[in-house]
Amino acid sequence: QVQLVESGGGLVQAGGSLRLSCAASGRTFSGAAMGWFRQAPGKEREFVAAIGWSDGIPYYQPSYQDSVKGRFTISRDNNKNTVYLQMNSLKPEDTAVYFCSARATAVIIKSPQYWPYWGQGTQVTVSS
Description:
globular
C-alpha cells in the first residue's frame, strides 16, 4: 500500500500564493506518477497537475490543467518522496479541497478513476 499525506492548504487572498506538499510512504515503484486533483462543492473531482518518473528520473513532462498553466508548478523531491504544488496568482475559482494521488506507472491520465492511491485532502480557500 501507499500512504499519502498532504499539507499546506489554507486561506489566502486572490493573487496570493500557497504551496501544497504531499509526502508518500509505503510501497515504492520503479515507475510512478503523483498528481493533484481538486474538488469544489457540488462539482466533480478534477485533474490539476501531475508528474511521472521512472527509476528516479523525470520521465514525462509535467501535465497541467489548462486553467492553472503558468500559475501552478508541480515538482518532486526524490530524496524526500514528496511532491509539491506551488500555486501562484490564486483566484477564487481555485477554491477547493485538493487531493494528492499516486499511480504505479509513469503515464499520466487525467481521469481520477485511474489513480488508486489518495490522500485525505487539504482545503484551499481563495478570498476575493
